[in-house]
Amino acid sequence: MADCPSTRIGVAGYGYWGSKHVRVLTSLSGVEVTVIEPDEERRRRARADHPGVGVVRDLDDMLDGLDGVVVVTPPATHARLALKALAAKVPTLVEKPLVLLEEDGVAVVEAARAAGVQLMVGHVFAYDAAVRKLRDVIASGELGRVLHIDCARLSLGRYRQDCDVVWDLAPHDISIVAHLLGELPATVSAWTHRAVRAAHADVAHLRLDFAEAGVPAFVHVSWLAPEKVRRITVVGEKKTAVYDDLAGDERLTIHDVGVELPDGDGGTDAGCRVVHRSGDIVSRPVPGAEPLMVQDAHFVDCVRAGTSPATPGEQGLAVVRVLAAADRAASTGTPAAVPRRRTAAGTEWGRRSVEVAS
Ligand SMILES: NC(=O)c1ccc[n+]([C@@H]2O[C@H](COP(=O)([O-])OP(=O)(O)OC[C@H]3O[C@@H](n4cnc5c(N)ncnc54)[C@H](O)[C@@H]3O)[C@@H](O)[C@H]2O)c1
Ligand 1 centre and the CA of 74: distance in Å? Predict the structure, then answer.
C-alpha cells in the first residue's frame, strides 16, 4: 500500500444507507470509492449522484483491487459478503446488525482473526460525541446513582424483508447502553407484536438487565409510530440526562428533576409518599462531526495504519447474542440469559470503543 496513491474502498449496497456511506467516503481525502450494487437502477443512480466513483455489479469483480470493503446490504447477506471479503484478506466494515445468526457471527469473527485483517461493525452511535459526553456525565456522578435507562426508537419505519424491528433498530440502543455502562446485559426480556405483517414483529419492548451496574434499561422500538423519536433517557438519583438524537447540537440536556423519599421514610415506602424536585434544564452542546463521517474516517485510518477498530467484529457479535436472547425471551415469555464470552482480546465490551477523536 505504500506506493498506492489512494485508499480504495468498496461500498457494497447503494440503497438508503449505502448512499450515505458513499457520500461521506467520497468527501475524505485520498479515498477512491467503488460502488458494488446488483440492482441496475441503483447503479445508474450511483453514477448520477457521484460521477467520479467506479460502479460494478458484483463484489467478486472488485476484490483484488480493494484496500477495504463496507458492507451495507440487507442483513441476511452480511455474513456471505463479509466472509468473501475476509477470505481475500480485505479489511471489512459491516453495518449493524453484524449478522442474523450467532453461528454466522462466530464464523465471521474467526475468519477475520484467521486472515489477520480488521473486521469492524457499524455501531455508528459509538462515534457520536453526544454518547461519549453522556457516558462522561454518568461517570462524573452528576446524575447520582443511575436508577434506570429508557430508550425509544420509533417512527413509521421501512419494513425490512429479512429481519424484525428488534434486529433492525435495537442494535443501536443495545450498543449505546453498553457503551454508557461499559458492560453487556446479563439477561433480556422481550415482548413483541406483529401488527401489520405475519412474518416479522414491527413493535417491541425489551428489558435489558445489567449485572454490574445493577440497573435495567428499557428499549421500545417500533416501525409503526406516527412520530419519529430517537431518545435515550438516563434517570439518576440526583438528575436526569436526555439524549435526543433529533435535536441537533442541543441533543444532550441535563434535567434537575426527580423524586425523593420524605425525610425519615428510610425507604420503607410507608404511605408511598415522595417529594418532587423540579429545577433547571441545561443543554450541553455537542457540535462534533456527523457520526457516520467519524465512523468511516476511523475505518479508513484503521485500513491505512493496520490498526484495530474501536468497534471490532466481536462487539457486533456480542450485540447479536443479545438480539438472539431477545428472540428466545419473546418466544418463551421469560427472561433469557446472554451467554458471556471472553475473546482473545479480553472482554467483549471495552471502554476504548468510544475514544475515537471526532
Ligand atoms: N447505522 C445506521 O443508522 C443504519 C441506518 C440504516 C440502515 N443501516 C443498515 O445498513 C444496511 C442496509 O440498509 P438499507 O436501509 O440501506 O437497505 P436497502 O434495502 O435500502 O439497500 C440495500 C442495498 O444492497 C443491495 N444489495 C443486495 N445484495 C447485494 C450484494 N450481494 N452486493 C451488493 N449489494 C447488494 C440492494 O440491491 C440494495 O441496493 C442494513 O444492514 C441496515 O441495518 C444502518
Answer: 5
CA dihedral 186, 187, 193, 199 (to 10 degrees): 70
- Give CA–CA dist 206/174, Å, rounded: 10
Give the whole-angstrom CA distance, residue 301 versus residue 299: 5
Indicate the CATH number for domain 128-283: 3.30.360.10
Q: Which three cell numbers stand for residue 312?
A: 471490532
Q: Report the distance separating Cα 183 and Cα 235, nearest Å.
A: 18
Residue nearest to atom 28 of ligand 1 (CA): 73
User: Is 190 a pocket residue for ligand 1 (Cβ < 6 Å)?
Assistant: no
Q: Is the CB of 52 under 6 A from ligand 1?
A: no
Second CATH level (architecture) for the domain 7-125+291-312+341-354: 3-Layer(aba) Sandwich (3.40)
Q: Is 36 in the pocket of ligand 1 (CB under 6 A)?
A: yes
- CB of 169 shorter than 6 A to ligand 1: no
- Pull the grid cell for residue 284: 450541553
pLDDT in tens, 113-125: 999 999 999 999 9
Q: pLDDT tens-digit profile of 124-155?
A: 999 999 999 999 999 999 999 999 999 999 99
